[in-house]
């Protein structure tokens, strides 16, 4: 076998392994990708607005100790948010520049979307310590008509934490599915269709 035949065989094998995506299939894929990008932009601006509002509320809190605690807590939440949003921006940039010409590129896109799904769920879980801190601050600074006992404080803290974590989990799952999950599922189904 000469070199030319070997090159031709090699090129045929590569072409057989990575079939190209036609224009109609690309258009079907681009619609959910554009929806994901639009929802990422919308969520980013919502988060910016929420943090601006939170810092404005901090500026009017009294006494100074309460203002300091809340400001430090919100600044810590902002740092966590910046870390996770740097990951989301990377995905946003990657899906903006994705050339979906082969099934391998589509498979890579689905892998990136699923990885960011894990980041997204981790983002929500990372707010558990902040819930605990918020409850402690509320318990410490709200003026109660009569002093609370240790058992009552423990019950309020644990009950609030359980309810808060459950609500955080439900809100995170709902938000992700509504704004991202269904589009990721659509892209995955297109990938399965493409494999047939």
Automatic annotation (TrEMBL):
The chain crosses the membrane at residues 44-61, 68-86, 121-142, 154-176. Keywords: Membrane, Transmembrane, Transmembrane helix. This is Uncharacterized protein. It comes from Chryseobacterium pennae.
